[in-house]
Specification:
The chain is α/β, with parallel strands linked by helices and 556 residues long. The protein contains 23 helices and eleven strands.
Length: 556
């Protein structure tokens, strides 16, 4: 008896060890495709949901082992597929949580080179080195973990009793998934997570759709952009897209209270320069990011809600409000301080001058991802394009960046606009105070408020700087801030303000299009972002009796 007990104990330990390893492997492959996001962070949380894709992989191994087939190659392929699906799951749940929208891998991946170029310019060398190492080591490490897990399951499938149990469990999960998707009752707290693989199938379908030319055909005819611009004749017209300026800034009590002094200061700048304003809400075509979708929707008058439509539209010769202003004798200028690479879109829009990051040539203290700040960009272009006498009126499009997440450090407002262009635009004390602000990624609300306070200050200051000039300012949010600021289930609405001394223009907006006098916008929203363009063109002038003559940049 004494001679058999150790052997029996060793065998029993081996059984327990194999069972524990199998359980760990099954849990690992399951939770890697069912985890959820910890809102509002980059972290994930695990749950008890079941994965049909993990069940399908287990069932495939069981079937192959039952037929006596070798599983070494199958384990390698399953590990690679698991790595791809797990990455897709992470992207899907994280983007939806942080930005409040879905992800389109095929089109979003086209922006990776631009983001990489920005990261290469602004990131610390050690951060870049660590990121590069992570890109190599993390997938390799995860793949090895996947090989271990699927290898353990394959090994267990070689034992008849374990194979039967694995097959029954995997088939049960698949049947449960079918029942759940058919709307049938599911026992207890069992729940099957949404599979990840259909997202990849959608991407393949998107590729075929675009390659066939169907996407361009389905875009439809361009809208007619017609206005004689008589109510803005001789004025400089600014369309300023204020980054992340969303309806939440008017809805959340904490934001409203904290922004009240800055908004009163902005109202004082408007009234103190003999101007008035009208405001409304519009529905943006994007949420939490991808500002260019809002830009092109407004400038072209075409609804653009995804990168696919954006690319299709850019591939065509279309009329834009920029070209319309150019045909009417305006000098068309784009201010793009966040633009670090080439911008072929400028030709599509029809801009004569583009002030990108390099051309702005900022040499002052850095703020945010791009270093340059909005007040400097405005001052630089004003000195070059707006201040000189004996020039044609200007149409200026400005895509701001200083209110981009994570919002701080926000630059100090410099009341001396001439000093803004110097290499030392701020006193040491105010610069130290600005740089001391660090983003709290679990609560970006205070940082968001600080960034908007800066925006109201410098735009109001610019109105004072141009107190004696004829100006029409359209200030519109590009999208709501990311969901970690705006909250779950927030609307896609953004404010729009029109500031001018031209009473007939404002009356047209208030009496004919649902705008409210003053700074505070009111519901309901007057239009979608693309629908805002015909409203503005109607306010800017009357429809001409004849076709506009095509100009050198026109498309008619």
């Amino acid at each position: 008896m004494e001679t058999t007990a150790p052997g029996w104990g060793g065998a029993r330990f081996a059984v327990v060890r194999r069972a524990a390893a199998l359980c760990a492997a099954l849990v690992l492959v399951n939770v890697s495709l069912t985890f959820a996001n910890v809102w509002p962070t980059l972290a994930v949380r695990f749950n008890r949901d079941l994965s049909v894709e993990a069940a399908a992989g287990v069932l495939a191994l069981v079937a192959m082992r039952a037929r006596g087939r070798p599983l070494r190659a199958a384990v390698r392929w399953l590990a690679a597929a698991w790595l791809l699906l797990a990455a897709g799951r992470y992207v899907e749940v994280t983007v939806a949580s942080l930005y409040g929208r879905g992800v389109n891998l095929y089109w979003d991946m086209q922006h990776v080179p631009k983001v990489g170029a920005m990261f290469a310019v602004v990131a610390d060398p050690w951060l870049k080195a660590g990121f590069a190492a992570g890109l190599i080591l993390a997938p390799l490490g995860l793949y090895l973990v996947a090989r271990w897990a699927w290898g353990g399951i394959a090994e267990a499938a070689g034992r008849p009793a374990a194979r039967r149990a694995l097959g029954a469990a995997a088939a049960g999960v698949l049947l449960l998934g079918l029942a759940q998707w058919a709307g049938l009752g599911v026992p207890g707290s069992l729940r099957v997570a949404e599979p990840v693989s259909p997202a990849f199938a959608r991407e393949l379908g998107e590729l075929v759709y675009e390659a066939s030319g169907a996407g361009v055909r389905d875009l439809g005819p361009p809208p007619a952009l017609r206005s004689d611009l008589s109510r803005v004749e001789g004025a400089d017209v600014f369309v300023v897209f204020l980054e992340s300026y969303g309806a939440v800034s008017w809805e959340r009590d904490a934001f409203v209270e904290a922004l009240a002094p800055a908004r009163r200061g902005f109202e004082a700048a408007v009234s103190g320069t003999g101007r008035r304003m009208a405001s409304a809400f519009v529905e943006s075509t994007t949420f939490g990011g991808e500002s260019w979708l809002a830009h092109i929707s407004l400038l072209s008058g075409t609804e653009v809600r995804d990168p696919a439509t954006n690319v299709r539209l850019m591939a065509q010769e279309r009329d834009t409000v920029v070209k319309l202003f150019s045909r009417r004798g305006f000098r068309t200028i784009a201010i793009m301080p966040g633009l670090l690479v080439g911008w072929p879109e400028g030709a599509f829009y029809g801009f004569e001058e583009i002030y990108d990051h390099a051309r702005l040539d900022y040499r002052g203290p850095p703020f945010g991802w791009w270093g340059v700040n909005d007040q400097y960009a405005l001052a630089r272009v004003d000195a070059a394009e707006i201040a000189p006498p004996d020039r044609p009126p200007a149409f200026v499009f400005f895509a701001t960046i200083s209110t981009h997440a994570p919002f701080v450090p926000a630059p100090p407002y410099q009341a001396d606009w001439a000093r803004v262009l110097a290499e030392t635009p701020y006193d040491a004390g105010e610069l130290d105070r600005a740089w001391s602000a660090w983003a709290d990624w679990t609560n970006l609300g205070p940082s968001y408020v600080e960034a908007l306070q800066y925006a109201f200050a410098h735009i109001g200051g610019y109105l004072r700087l141009l107190a004696d000039r004829d100006l029409v300012l359209v200030l519109v949010g590009d999208h709501q801030p990311p969901a970690l600021v705006s909250g779950a289930g927030a609307s896609w609405e953004v404010p729009v303000h029109v500031v001018t001394s031209r009473a007939d223009l404002l009356d047209r907006l208030v009496d004919g299009h649902g705008f409210a006098p003053g700074l505070e916008p009111r519901r309901p929203a007057v239009a979608r972002m693309d629908g805002l363009l015909p409203i503005l063109l109607d306010a800017f002038g009357d429809e001409p009796a004849a076709e506009d003559p095509p100009g050198p940049s026109g498309s008619e």
